[in-house]
């Protein structure tokens, strides 16, 4: 009887064959590129034939490799279908977001999601660290950054980083809005880890004469400090929209700084995604589109 190859080697070969690239397969499997290459070498040694030609910029199937990959892909699909038939499709969806996005956008909008999808158990992991789709069981992630994020990921830009300066009405008492350049220069500034004030003041051709200002680790904290009248904060406009519409915050100058760290939705590329996760993805997309 022919001995079945190790399952890990077959998984590595199947992923590498879909991408024809060890690095992209490694991104999908949440392992190193070297680990994928090693598993494929083990499989080739087990079978006694080469499955790929190693090219300077990727891989190409050998004739045997192409035929074998088609059958392995079908076998994995049959395994997935057999497993899926044994249990109902889960309605739990785990979303990884930054704490600021959770506090200032997602949680205020959750009633709309619950009304539209009462059957979905949406679980939120609010963290600054980059979560693993495989290791942490993440279905969808919202991250602020710059592409590329990995060949194994579907990427949708939800919101641009359009930075505005905001403050509480109490801080602006006695001042006309929009503020004069001199007044903005003299007011205390609230800083977060993105450190956007130097670029914002440079755009306005201003110097900061407001003292050291409060320094906080997250944008959500600078927004809370601004709400309590402690200074002027720089925030992405979509995060401040509710507070501005409620007159809790005021945009102090009309200028907007376009940053480079936009907000993206990430999900693993899958031939067939579970309907609950797809509903969450569609909801995020529609909400972002509605926000303009």
TrEMBL record:
InterPro entries, alphabetized: LysR-type_TF_proteobact-type, LysR_HTH_N, LysR_subst-bd, WH-like_DNA-bd_sf, WH_DNA-bd_sf
Family designation: Belongs to the LysR transcriptional regulatory family.
Domain annotation HTH lysR-type: ranges: 5-62
Name of the molecule in the record: LysR family glycine cleavage system transcriptional activator
Keywords on record: DNA-binding, Transcription, Transcription regulation
Gene Ontology molecular function, alphabetical: DNA-binding transcription factor activity; sequence-specific DNA binding
Alphabetical GO biological process terms: DNA-templated transcription
